[in-house]
């Protein structure tokens, strides 16, 4: 059993990495506001949990926004993520503004219940001093008692392409196939993390490809991942901040913490089209959860993911 | 007057009459640059302290050592977590009781050590801040207990009665807030001290 891998967090991180790389190339992405796509009016709940293939720990992230601005939990108010057998407080800062995160062991795939609770002592127990003796408790805040439920969709099983498949042109097609066992309403997408080298310099970035149907097959042109810096990247959809953060977290989990924390934010120095690139494809199935009726709106997503790595080899030797 | 100080004076008054008839007694006063460590992520800043010690030489190379140590209020770096911003500070006093062996080199140099037990009184204060609408405040608690100390120093004789001393000290307070909290800790105070001694 792994110590505490965190699939959702990793996925966030991968997405985050991709975004950073994109901005460094000069694409028109506004990176000034690292928030998920939530409504800008009202009290809004945002929560996301991802369980990666073969991992036993999901990374849970949650936040509350009021009129688009993160609402900080203070004074011992904290998100609690709970299953029937496991429980954790989300005490770490999440990868996007105003979010809180923690890994939660998912020994049996089941719903995760998120509640805002008031735990003045447990919320402080990472501090060094006797927090049960010395704490100033302002009492429960207004968000205590609010809740949401995250449901995981069926697992993702990729059947093709084979890991290590090689492509030589941006016009090549990646025939991505998977076991189509999702339910109606589940959404699919591919997050990619592309790492390139031209022998002298390196580049890495992330992209996202939305998949219309969970029908088990998607033909994706390689130019969704590989582009020519000199000709621009209009055809590529770089991942948003929240997904970028998720992807970075996922990479961190998969590498047991041995990934550069800025891996996804490296500058694009090597032109991908004339480089050799490793393309890690994270196929993700998402399912919407439910949030407390006291929220004006919300976005609660449970997801599961699987990964396959393919390679792009430039037809022109870079030396 | 705090009971802690009263106890120290009683100990001193008990020893003084004996010392009057001793061949050699010494009173040391030192300022300390302290480094506290309570374990975990405490991140204490360096602090200051004072030590007053009284040595009664039982033999040429060995003295009984009685002292008082008082630290300034020493703060940690500010921290932030899911609860809010916080900062802690410690102020401590100790009565020291032990031995002080020494070795005299050729005049005017001497090296010495101290080893003994301590009775401490430590106050821990915590400041917390949440946000503009939910202000925080301060809270504190005090505990007493025992521990030990050890030090190594060097002395330089200015004349027959006055010495200058440089000393490395290690003081350990054990089980601070044991029995009052589920999160007790041991407090280590390492210090570099500079002071003067006067021989009677």
Q: Can you offer a commentary on this structure?
A:
The complex is a heterodimer of chains A (319) and B (200). With 319 residues, chain A is mainly β. Chain A is built from two helices and 18 strands. In chain A, the strands form three sheets. In chain A, strands 1, 2, 3, 6, 7, 11, 13, 14, 16 and 18 form a ten-stranded mixed sheet that branches. A five-stranded antiparallel sheet of chain A has the order 5-4-8-9-17, with no helix packed on it. In chain A, strands 10-12-15 form a three-stranded antiparallel sheet, with no helix packed on it. The mean pLDDT of chain B is 91. Chain B has an eight-stranded antiparallel β-barrel. The two termini of chain B are 28 Å apart. The longest helix of chain B has 18 residues, at 3-20. The A-B interface holds A 72-76, 78, 89-92, 100, 120, 123-136, 138, 141 and B 38-42, 79, 81-84, 86, 88, 124, 126, 128, 130-131, 134, 136-141, 177, 180-185.
What is the gist of this entry?
Chain A is mainly beta and 319 residues long. In chain A, 10% of the residues lie in helices and 37% in strands.
List its traits.
heterodimer; A: 319 residues; mainly beta; ten-stranded mixed sheet; five-stranded antiparallel sheet; 10% helix; elongated; disordered N terminus; B: 200 residues; 1 helix
